[in-house]
From TrEMBL:
GO terms for molecular function: glycosyltransferase activity. It comes from Musa troglodytarum (fe'i banana). The lineage of its organism: Eukaryota, Viridiplantae, Streptophyta, Embryophyta, Tracheophyta. This is UPF0114 domain containing protein. It comes from the Eukaryota. InterPro entries: Glycosyltransferase_61 (IPR007657).
Length: 373
């Protein structure tokens, strides 16, 4: 049998070197095949190495790319400087403006303290002294009013808030009627003198206010004592109270004057309304209890609450709260037809906002612990 021909390492015939065919001896063909395979492997390995070097060389940035990156970095830094420089100028200008305002203000600054040798340190001191309204001692208080007998009348808002320390004794004692209608949420009126209730006519009678002795003649005022004045739809449903100046009780016929049935000696009255949105929990606090507290807390319980459109369940529900605002029984303005007499009365409630108590707007200027409670 003929032995099979030996190919070059089981490769196809074309891989044999040129000129080596089956006529050559077997050993020569085998040796030639081994040498050719070794050369082939070395050739392919060298080619793979060259390919790797080419790939690595392509991954590194070229000199052109390096120069482009350097240019981009320089542009980025220059752009940052262009943006930062205007911001720095604005900051310096703002700081300079604040310092200039602080140094030119007549009031002492918390962060700029003028030196003792400063030429303007005495002038702000005089301005601050001129703004002071509190007199340290009673002696100085009397001396000031002796030197200035013609003090201007106090605004109605000051009388409502109890800020009457600067008023002359004659102004503090005269009968008057005034109203503060500057607030968008509520109107308030103030009556002083011989103040009497007349529930049958929904009126508050102020005897002596029509005698013509006061600087400003008193006129009849009408008010709906509810803290949503801007809400005309609901305000229209509130009972209107008339505050009527009257001649002195001694100067009128006895049948025309309303005799006192209940005298509240030395006690002011505070008239409010239980109408409107009373019954809604939110509005009971926002429109009622919180404004009542803001208006009545300065009396420290020495005030009589007069409630128009009173609802008995309101007293039952908020009795503990009302006991902290007044030491006296509540007066039902509509059902209690007796004549209640007071030395002064506030009609309406002061409000700072929705569920808000602003300590800077309180008569004493701050909140105490009892107010937080």
């Amino acid at each position: 049998m003929r032995s099979p021909s030996i190919t070059c390492c089981h490769l196809k015939q074309p891989f044999l070197p040129h000129g080596i065919d089956g006529k050559w001896p077997r050993k020569v063909r085998l040796l030639t095949c081994v040498i050719a395979g070794s050369l082939r492997r070395r050739l392919f390995g060298e080619r793979r190495r060259m390919n790797r070097q080419q790939r690595n060389a392509s991954a590194l940035p070229t000199p052109a790319q390096v120069s482009h990156l350097v240019v981009v970095e320089k542009e980025r830094k220059s752009g940052f400087l262009h943006r930062a420089f205007p911001l720095l100028l604005l900051t310096l200008y703002a700081v300079g403006s604040v310092l200039r305002l602080a140094l030119s203000s007549p009031f002492p600054s918390s962060f700029v303290q003028p030196s003792a040798a400063s030429s303007f340190s005495a002038e702000p001191r005089q301005d601050v002294e001129s703004l002071r309204t509190h007199i340290a001692s009673e002696t100085n208080h009397l001396q000031v009013h002796e030197e200035n007998p013609g003090d201007p009348p106090l605004p109605c808002s000051a009388r409502i808030d109890g800020r009457t320390e600067g008023a002359a004794a004659a102004n503090r004692d005269e009968a008057l009627v005034c109203c503060d209608r500057n607030h968008v949420r509520s109107d308030l009126c103030y009556a002083r003198g011989d103040v009497r209730t007349d529930s049958r006519s929904s009126s508050i009678l102020v005897y002596g206010a029509a005698d013509g002795k006061s600087a400003a003649p008193a006129t009849e005022e009408k008010i709906r004592p509810y803290t949503r004045k801007w809400d005309t739809e609901i305000t229209r449903t509130i009972q209107e109270i008339s505050i009527r100046p009257m001649p002195s009780a001694a100067a009128v016929n006895g049948s025309q004057s309303r005799a006192c049935d209940v005298r509240h000696e030395g006690l002011p009255g505070l008239l409010l309304s239980n109408g409107g949105y009373t019954g809604n929990l939110y509005h009971e606090f926002s429109d009622g209890l919180i404004p009542l507290y803001v208006t009545a807390q300065r009396f420290k319980g020495e005030v009589v609450l007069v409630v128009a459109e009173h609802r008995p369940w309101w007293l039952a529900r908020y009795g503990p709260v009302l006991q902290r605002l007044t030491n006296y029984e509540l007066v039902d303005f509509n059902r209690d037809t007796r004549v209640h007499c007071f030395s002064e009365m506030i009609v309406g409630l002061r409000i700072h906002g929705e569920l808000i108590i602003d300590p800077w707007l309180m008569p004493n200027g701050k909140l105490t612990r009892s107010q937080h409670e």
